[in-house]
Amino acid sequence: MPEPPARRSDPAIPPSPTEADTVRVRPAADPVVPSPRESPELEEPRADRAPPGRARRWAAGVAFVLVAVAVGLVLGTRHPVPTAAAPEPPVFRPGVHVVGDGPWQMPAGVYATSGPTGAATSCSYVRLLGFDGSAGAVAGQRTVAGPASMHLRPGDAGVVLEGPCDWAPRPPVG
Length: 174
Hints:
single chain, alpha+beta, 4-stranded antiparallel sheet, 2 helices, 7 strands, elongated
């Protein structure tokens, strides 16, 4: 029976089955048992050979792993994974700083400067043993005109930085 023209032109609608497309079923009265030579599924499994499906799956798995490793090597050498950069050391600018281990304090240690910036010719620092304003509270002071270092000790209470010098912790040597 021919199909209507609208149905043949629509690709989303499958065509009607024809007699050639139908499967003939053998009557139940005539059972056919295939011999082992005709059907590999009915053979007895042999201990020296893996089933054919297992061998193909194993080979496909090995091929997949090899391709994944190769792709990883190619991409890994061309596009390195960015790592977290080390945090910049803190820079201390002019002002009064408390010596200590707190979040807004200047830890004891050695600090360095490259010297004054801009048109200034010098800068200075004053190490303090206390904040009472007495002359005995000053542990040391220095005026610098170029690169210099400063050593803050654990007994220092604070430091006063004056002038356009930036002081940064100097990394330990060795």
